[in-house]
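Re: that chain you flagged

S.,

Sorry for the slow reply, it's been a week of failed gels. I finally had a moment to sit down with the sequence you sent. For the record, here it is as I used it:
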Amino acid sequence: MAKRNIPTVAMIYDFDGTLAPGNMQEFGFIQAVQKNKNEFWEKSNQMAEENDADSILCYMYSMIKDATYYGVGRSKESFEGFGKNVKFFAGVEQWFHLINQYGKAKGLEVKHYIISSGLKEMIEGTSIAKEFEYIYASSFLYDNNGVAVWPGVAVNYTTKTQFLFKINKGIKEISDNNKINDFVPEGQRPVPFERMIYFGDGQTDIPCMKMVKVHGGHSVALYDKPQKKNTALKLIKDDRVNFVCHSDYTEGKELYKVVTTILDKIKADFDFNLLLEKHQNKQ
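Prediction finished late last night. Pasting the structure tokens below so you have them in one place:
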């Protein structure tokens, strides 16, 4: 837990479409199983519709099935290898250092998290994996030979919200169903919701965006193409996010200015509350 006078800020990111364009499977895996991205996703989504099934479980099943058929490795290392191919939006790889340094200069401890429906193993293979305090994402179960055989965790748009509470209470383990339900007074939680910033781009992020905003935090909707801007702006109109920005993480761009201003506000609010508490406790 951070020191009393150094508040912790959690910056929480979706992955696909938020930090990187498209879906991570499109950076090598889909090509390795001899499909194009439209073919892979149409088949996976059709499976979900025909069976009234969860689309995340269906894409994970499709990955295992296709990898088995085409002889593509199904070990963690193989999936991490595909993750190394993922390309990011402008400025992403420099972003974390910039924001950490800005936060430190303001007297804040900034921590970064992922909450993604994408594959944890692939995210762990990317060049930015080391930047995250924890990665909450879908992942496989592996047999005694280290081969993926079944979905272990499937993160969809509703299950994403549970990880906000794990961050709020300082719980990393996905399998822990006890600590998450234990009562912890608001003042003793490592990261209050008002010190969370959530970044997302699509429909699967809406519950998290809204929850963070409602509880006093800040949500940022990102778009990478002009035709997606109106969709993002509708999230403001519908009172689901605070800000809409182009997905350019470069220093000095709009997103950088928005986030640094939020950090300024978080620190000012923290200092104000300390001052208020001090005066209220005067004897």
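What I noticed first: Strands lie at 8-13, 109-119, 134-142, 148-153, 196-200, 218-223, 243-246.

Talk soon,
D.
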